[in-house]
Specification:
heterodimer, A: mainly alpha, 9 helices, 86% helix, B: mainly alpha, 2 domains, 75% helix, Permease (chain B), transmembrane (chain B), membrane (chain B), transmembrane helix (chain B), transmembrane helix (chain A)
Chain lengths: 160, 187
């Protein structure tokens, strides 16, 4: 159902944009751009979804519950935050890992903490994109400023 | 908001190509392969094939949404050229500047290869460190395109809403903190 709603929503916006493009040349450029993006993204999605499926199968539920379940405490928060940066690949990997952990018995608040930590501190993104494109000073300042966020999110998620 | 009308006489801008297979892809592929081999060893071929089949079915279900999302992410940057967005954010200051930067970070689709250069260019057109930080952290925490395509596909709706609500104030707070800590220096 979520997927259907998202598909209708994004499909509508995509059609609106297509219609909004001024002429055939722009439409062709939009399609060519989307095709380039598809070539880049498709192999990653296939590999990531397969990896996530295998990874979920390998997760031992007892250990997941012990580390990230009810009563995991501060160590669960620290571990969830530590796993964020070292998650390889794009958004689908971290969300798939979060979904697998949730199914195996992790709490929602720790999954939210993990996803937040990944979204702010993904090491592959930081090293491959942020550091070279933003420069050392801005990249490190951003890292420093964002450091408290997953901890605050973990605290807030725990309360709600 | 930059007008979409003035582009009618112009040609669409060229977008740079990217290498499809890079280090990130190989790390991902090796991790997936290692997990797959482990499943075959521990649970057998049948289970591994079953999982692979399920995942490909899921992929087929997601495909229309991903295609629509990619078209948006590929087309919007053509219509909203980065220099226009940068100038638009650069001329604002104060709380308005932070709010605008945070809104742009969440709303403008695009991966890291597009977002970080855009953020870096803000400084050149007059945006302060607070706006740059609000933009980048808003993109990282709240990217609308990513949430609609990926997050809602994998995670339960209520969890996604909670995460978005909890993260909502942070881009502004990070922007304010950036001004307080780094604002005075080397502007």
């Amino acid at each position: 159902m979520n997927i259907l709603i998202g598909t209708v929503l994004l499909g509508t916006v995509a059609l609106w944009l297509y219609w909004k493009l001024p002429n055939a040349e722009w439409r062709a450029a939009g399609m060519a751009n989307a095709w380039r993006m598809a070539q880049f993204t498709a192999p990653r999605i296939v590999v990531a979804l397969l990896g996530a499926g295998f990874f979920a199968e390998l997760l031992p539920p007892e250990q997941v519950r012990a580390l990230f379940g009810e009563g995991a405490g501060v160590s669960g928060v620290l571990l969830a935050i530590a796993l964020g940066p070292i998650t390889p690949g794009g958004a689908f990997v971290s969300f798939a890992v979060g979904a697998a952990a949730l199914k195996a018995g992790a709490t929602s608040s720790l999954v939210v903490t993990y996803v937040t930590s990944w979204s702010l501190f993904s090491a592959s993104r930081f090293l491959a994109y942020e550091l070279p494109l933003m420069g050392r000073q801005l990249a490190l300042r951003r890292l420093l400023l964002c450091l408290p966020v997953p901890f605050l999110i973990a605290g807030a998620a725990h309360i709600v | 908001m930059p007008s979409l009308k003035n582009i009618e006489t112009e040609a669409p801008p060229e977008q740079p190509a990217r290498a499809v297979f890079d280090t990130g892809f190989y790390i991902l592929a090796l991790s997936a392969l290692a997990a797959g081999v482990l499943v075959v060893v521990l649970k057998g071929w049948d289970r591994a094939l079953e999982i692979a089949q399920d995942e490909m079915m899921f992929m087929a279900v997601l495909a229309p949404k991903i295609a629509a999302g990619m078209f948006i992410a590929a087309t919007l940057p053509l219509l909203l050229p980065r220099d226009k967005v940068a100038i638009w954010i650069g001329r604002e200051s104060g709380m308005r500047g932070l709010l605008l930067a945070a809104f742009a970070g969440a709303a403008i689709p695009g991966g890291p290869a597009m977002t970080f250069p855009l953020a870096a260019s803000f400084g050149l057109v007059g945006a302060d460190v607070g706006a740059i930080m609000a933009f980048v952290s808003s993109w990282a925490l709240l990217s609308l395109n990513r949430t609609l395509i990926w997050e809602f596909s994998f995670l339960p709706v209520d969890l996604v809403w909670w995460r978005v609500l909890l993260c909502l104030p942070f881009p502004i707070l990070i922007g304010l903190a950036a001004r307080a800590v780094f604002g005075g220096r080397d502007a």
